[in-house]
Amino acid sequence: xxxxxxxxxxxSIQPQLWRGNGTDQTxxxxxxxxxxxxxxxxxxxxxxxxxxxxxxxxxRSLRLNSSSECASIxxxxxxxxxxxxFPFHTDYTGNGISIRVxxxxxxxxxxxxxxxxxxxxxxxxxxxxxxASDAGDVMLDNDIQNFTIRCVGRSTMGYFxxxxxxxxxxxxxxxxxxxxxxxxxxxDDYFAESPLTRDSNYDRPGTASSPSGPLQMAAExxxxxxxxxxxxxxxxxxRPKAANGGH
Length: 247
Prior knowledge:
The chain has helices at residues 2-7, 137-141, 181-184, 214-228, 234-243, and strands at 17-19, 43-46, 60-72, 88-94, 97-103, 119-131, 147-161. By secondary structure, the protein is α+β, with helices and mostly antiparallel strands.
């Protein structure tokens, strides 16, 4: 991670980074990591590569998106003791500058719960930077000012539906809840309101409630052929019929 953060550029390919503007492009020409106004849901990361679709299957994938904002605060608002059970605190002094960092642990080391539903967390970071006692005349002449800031990071984790024939190959938004059993039954079902079969009366194979139809019968025949070869029970019946001219 440290190596990637130090070497990333505006031309770096980020295959796991999704965009919320209807395109699967990670970055377009001339675009960089400059601070520009973007919506909170402009980017998110997932274990599935950006733009992936699942064809006739309906599947979901985990996603995570974060945003942050910083504001100046008074120096005495920097925590005297970084709070929480597992806070991160460090400091550095050198080259004429002194820096302190505090990241409180507001979740006792367990920010995420064991659930598939949407989760939102908020994290803080305090940063204090000021001229050290060994600051040289060059730094003093450059009018460098001390500052203290507080940054708030907001992260959201949950699931979304990948693009497929059911949703016109467009990924869904973040799902507030993991689907209940009735909704889950519709997933991995190519024939549920598919654009290719919406006007057809094909049955949905593999469901106990589906009556036997032409598609299900064809699937059963293919399954029998796969198990028994072309010498299965159907062949002896068909061959005499063909030999007698179909009578």
